[in-house]
Write a structure and sequence with these properties.
223 residues; alpha/beta; Rossmann fold; 8 helices; 35% helix; globular
């Protein structure tokens, strides 16, 4: 009754189109080839394994992977997914996540866990886009989903904050639920990666509870 539509142009997908339609896919840059081995950012210069940002600012999480560069149609697509109730887009993102990173996901994760939204924002928006995406990736990959983290401290929007301000804003913001995560490899799911501060804060909480490793996957890398 509700056939899948392209997350970019909203046209019905053909039977052989699994995420974006062929026309929109030409306008989207999927992360392949020369990417940072830590954050997953596409790098313009070949021959290096780590981007300048990750060289300068070490992270607590082990590795992260992005699906797309944050440019062109992806900007509007992510906006609608986050703010306009287009939860169905998660199926397209999850398909591409497994298409791009299937082996890496399976080597990195025992659990798929969303980066949580605070309760007040969740009540206002009605859904948590990272949670919706995490469930879709878990279903597509066959790896168990678990809502393992709570955001226990109110934080301010981080769009205009510096790296240091982001880190301070997220200090002690996340708490692990009453679940034994010892020796578990956790794959955190979020929508956009900018500096990695959110992933680091979540990873710190998980590692302190005994997680073996924490990685991340996200729709896109922010500028």
């Amino acid at each position: 009754m509700f056939p899948p539509r392209c997350p970019s142009c909203d046209q019905l997908l053909a039977p052989d189109e699994k995420s974006f339609c062929k026309s929109c896919e030409k306008l989207i840059t999927k992360v392949r080839g020369n990417y940072c081995m830590i954050c997953g950012r596409l790098m313009k210069k070949s021959g290096k394994l780590v981007c300048p940002d990750c060289e300068k600012f070490p992270h607590i999480f082990s590795e992260g992977r992005s699906l797309y560069e944050y440019e062109g149609p992806i900007r509007e697509t992510v906006y609608r997914f986050k703010y306009k109730g287009r939860k169905s887009y998660a199926d397209a993102f999850a398909y591409d996540a497994v298409e791009l990173w299937d082996e890496w996901i399976k080597a990195s994760a025992d659990l798929v866990v969303p980066v949580p939204m605070n309760a007040k924002k969740l009540k206002k928006r009605g859904y948590d886009q990272a949670d919706v995406l995490a469930r879709a990736i878990a279903c597509e990959s066959g790896i168990p989903y678990l809502h393992l983290l709570d955001r226990v401290r109110k934080t301010v929007p981080m769009k205009t904050l510096s790296r240091a301000e982001r880190q301070n804003n997220l200090k002690n913001a996340f708490q692990v639920r009453d679940f034994d995560v010892k020796l578990k490899r956790v794959l955190l799911v979020d929508d956009i990666y900018t500096t990695g501060s959110t992933l680091d804060a979540c990873a710190k909480a998980l590692l302190e509870r005994g997680a073996a490793e924490v990685s991340g996957i996200y729709i896109s890398i922010g500028g």
